[in-house]
Design brief:
The chain is an alpha+beta fold. The chain is 45% helix and 16% strand. Strand 6 (123-125) and strand 7 (128-130) form a beta hairpin.
Length: 285
């Protein structure tokens, strides 16, 4: 496998690596560390599927790099079947200074306003296509393009029972009542959980694997709370920059947890069904 990867890398970049090693990960594609003469290192993803979409990840990384202070890796080469980017040296986890640094980065990102909810193109969350048709109505966007879309996808894949699909449809029908008026569209990373933040010396070294679009910031904060909270120091520092609206943790977070849980049901199966049911129950459906 690594020999084939080495040949593909050399063909695309016009430069032959001296060593190619598999890296942990690969939900979307094979992931390698490629080392080149002179000591340069790159992370290279290779997707051999007929409908490869690594160019979408390259677009998202470029968008974050251009429009924000997020320390995302530089894209070196990008096509549907191969994505090469700089390797970010990292080790260990965060200290309190790192949590505060991340809070500032996320708060600043959420200060980048958008023209509406969505994006000019569809993106990805993991290997799944993420629709982003523009709308001015956040509750409608979230209901149709997140909850309903991913519930139907999970059902088609045989991962979501019909009865639970019906409950998700009913939840989507009442999303306006559950979420209420929003604050306004801002740029989000879209898949910001602990595994997508790289640390070095306790500080943020890099942020990877985005699923960008313009959204209400609370959907981002839900990902951060649900899949590996970054600790009280992160939350207190974030709130110093951008205070949370009343009712987020008490009410709206239950509706927001439904979307990432549906993604995980699609990808990983029935281990996420019970958590999904609990959140739908908490919403009253």
């Amino acid at each position: 496998m690594t020999r084939g990867a080495s040949e593909r890398i050399a063909q695309t970049l016009g430069l032959s690596p001296v060593r190619v090693s598999p890296l942990y990960g690969g939900c979307v594609a094979e992931v390698y560390l490629a080392e080149f003469p002179g000591g340069r290192r790159m992370v290279v993803k290779i997707d051999r599927r007929p409908r490869a979409m690594l160019d979408r990840e390259g677009f998202m990384l470029g968008m974050l790099r251009e429009r924000s202070a997020f320390p995302v890796p530089e894209v070196i080469a990008c096509e549907p079947g191969l994505l090469a980017m700089e390797y970010i040296t990292h080790e260990g986890g965060p200290d309190d200074a790192g949590r505060e640094q991340l809070a500032r980065l996320v708060a600043d990102l959420h200060g980048i306003a958008g023209p509406g909810y969505g994006l000019d193109r569809h993106t990805l969350i993991g290997p799944l296509e993420q629709p982003n048709q523009w709308t001015d109505n956040w509750a409608a966007f979230y209901a149709e393009q997140r909850v309903r879309h991913f519930a139907r996808h999970a059902h088609r894949e045989g991962q979501l029972p019909a009865g639970l699909l019906t409950r998700c449809e009913r939840l989507a029908d009442r999303m306006g009542d559950l979420l209420g008026p929003g604050e306004g569209a801002c740029l989000i990373h879209g898949d910001l959980w602990a595994g997508n933040v790289l640390w070095r010396g306790g500080l943020v070294a890099g942020i990877i694997d985005p699923a960008v679009y313009y959204a209400e910031r609370e959907v981002e904060l839900t990902f951060m709370e649900l899949f590996g909270s970054f600790g009280d120091r992160f939350w207190s520092a974030y709130c110093e920059h951008r205070p949370l609206r009343d009712g987020f943790f008490e009410q709206r977070i239950h509706a927001y947890r439904v979307y990432p849980l549906l993604v995980h049901v699609s990808l990983f199966g029935d281990g996420y069904i019970d958590p999904l049911v609990r959140e739908i129950d908490a919403c009253g459906f």
